[in-house]
Amino acid sequence: MRIAVVALGKIGLPLAVQFADKGHEVIGVDVSERTVALVNDAKEPFPGEAFLQDKLTELVPAGRLRATTDYAEAIPGADAVVLVVPLFVDADSKPDFGWMDAATKSLAEHLTPGTIVSYETTLPVGTTRGRWKPMLEKISGLVEGKDFHLIFSPERVLTGRVFADLRKYPKLVGGLSEEGTAAGIALYEQLLDFDERPDLPRANGVWDMGTAEAAEMAKLAETTYRDVNIGLANQFAVYADKAGIDVYKVIEACNSQPYSHIHMPGIAVGGHCIPVYPRLYLSTDPDASVVHTARWFNADMPTYVVDRVAEVLGDLTGMHVAVLGASYRGGVKETAFSGVFATVEALRGRGARVSVQDPMYTDEELAAYGWDAYHVGEAVDAVIIQADHAEYTTLAPADLPGVKLLFDGRRVTDAALWAGTPRMVIGAPSTEG
Description:
The chain has helices at 12-21, 33-40, 52-59, 71-74, 98-109, 127-140, 162-168, 178-189, 212-243, 247-254, 277-284, 289-299, 301-313, 339-349, 363-368; strands at residues 2-6, 25-29, 65-68, 80-83, 88-89, 95-96, 116-119, 149-152, 171-175, 206-208, 320-324, 353-357, 372-373, 382-385, 405-408, 423-425, 428-431. The chain is α/β, with parallel strands linked by helices and 433 residues long. Helix 1 (12-21) packs across helix 3, helix 5 (98-109) packs across helix 6 and helix 9 packs across helix 12 (289-299).
């Protein structure tokens, strides 16, 4: 088949590579000339995606994958178009369709009969049928269900391990008609391979969701569940701090029973998914009070941590506090909705002199965010760990001269290395080793 992939970001490019690796002719479209040039040179545009560079090295010279900025080059005659353009939320937590609208209009201008159009970007329920269908039909002059099929099939992968996740998790497909859903299922069965999963209620593979709306809700529900679960864990942790209880022992005990699956508390919930998708869900179900409360509680955790630090050290005015981790999670160079922003803001609000360190970012990159760079080994009054980078697991007081308090917001450090120096985590009594 001839497949076009719209948006060659951290999800779209691995998808394009996966499809080409299955033997199909793939052309990717991206607005970034830099990204297009790098892909055509068989060079990964971003670090950290396992196996991506190796696959680019193989597929691009073989002519199975190329990239362009021109929709007119990619869309006409394609058997399928897979769109993975980001959807953002605005300052009022409402969906911002700007980029997706632009991509959809460009796609529609060049759409030809016989194409399956698949949206993989997570969407509010009803968007595929209520927004994309009329837009595609009006601009292209084609009729969905007759001239082309429109489906929704959400990406369910994490950056850094996309290829493994594509094999591990069922591919959910929902169309606007039975025929459309069937066409989408047949498409993805030719694009993906799946691991055996005896733990699933049915065979791993492409799963028929019946409708686009069901597929849209499934992606929102699975990610919103995680936000609500973490919110509950954080609520338990805050109470445990007040009661002097180790919440980690409590959670471990609870999860020894098969009906309990409590997640771990932490300083922040970041990334493109978990803090965003509950807002997309709320955009069509504004009365979901449980979702509202969890999102608010999780968003407030950086302030809670800074307040705890102030309880121990007192007035933070003039104190040098280093925040370790700009990324939203360890091993990923990405600051989308990272807790670093709220943590720095809360510290500055208390008068602290704040610096930021991250092993994946240069001093210049940190400065672009408005942060002074901290280097391990420099004198500091207090340290807050915001991201669970592997480099932080062996930190000891000798690495942070003068440190009076470590607040490990991700519980990644070794308490035994902190004998004699206060070390705190969320939801457990403070220790000195």
